[in-house]
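dumping this here so i dont lose it
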């Protein structure tokens, strides 16, 4: 049987994975547009929207994108979309500082609560508006500025540190539990009922 029909390639097994991607962020920050650009690009290349080839031998089927409005009346619907998510995109609008603030105030705590341990990608939307002078003037009038790339990096670092803290704490707890059980074994186990 030819190799490509057996599902094997260069001696490696070709795996098929399915991916559920949930996209969140403040209302109007650009989630739907981001998704539209992605799907349009893939369609224009003559590919189906549910297929993406990721590093060589793994074929990803991005079969489900869930992009629920960030507006408050959609909170319940969004919460229902989190189970079994494989990847989370948290979006903010660089021309709207409150959407950036909400990454750490609202979105990260929410996805951390519903999707503990799921990889997160922070996405800055509407980056073209950084060069929009009229918009910059409007923001300056209320003592604000468009969000810079460096500010985005800062939030990414905070999220990363928080994830690392969680893993560090989990490792500490696991090691403490292992030590405790070794000690219990050495001293003999005794329970009073
Ligand atoms: N200048 C500019 N405008 C954008 C960009 N992306 C989105 N917009 C505009 O921003 C507005 C909101 O975009 P949406 O994609 O609908 O935002 P959303 O996050 O899906 O909004 P909700 O469904 O309310 O949560 C629309 O008028 C878009 O045309 C961008 O990259 N640049």
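and the seq i came up w/
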């Amino acid at each position: 049987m030819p190799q490509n029909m057996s599902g094997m390639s260069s001696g490696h097994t070709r795996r098929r994975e399915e991916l559920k991607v949930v996209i969140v962020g403040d209302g109007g920050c650009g989630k739907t547009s981001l998704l539209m650009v992605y799907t349009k690009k893939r369609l224009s290349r003559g590919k189906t929207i549910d297929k993406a080839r990721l590093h060589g031998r793994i074929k990803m089927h991005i079969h489900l994108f869930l992009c629920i409005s960030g507006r408050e009346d959609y909170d319940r619907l969004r919460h229902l979309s989190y189970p079994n998510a494989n990847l989370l995109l948290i979006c903010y609008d660089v021309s709207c500082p409150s959407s950036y603030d909400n990454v750490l105030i609202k979105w990260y705590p929410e996805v951390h609560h519903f999707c503990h341990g799921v990889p997160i990608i922070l996405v800055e939307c509407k980056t073209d508006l950084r060069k929009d002078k009229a918009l910059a003037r409007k923001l300056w009038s209320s003592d604000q500025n468009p969000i810079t790339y460096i500010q985005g990096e800062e939030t990414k670092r905070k999220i990363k540190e928080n994830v690392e803290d969680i893993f560090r704490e989990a490792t500490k707890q696991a090691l403490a539990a292992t030590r405790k059980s070794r000690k219990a074994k050495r001293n003999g186990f005794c329970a009073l009922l």
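The longest helix spans residues 149-187.
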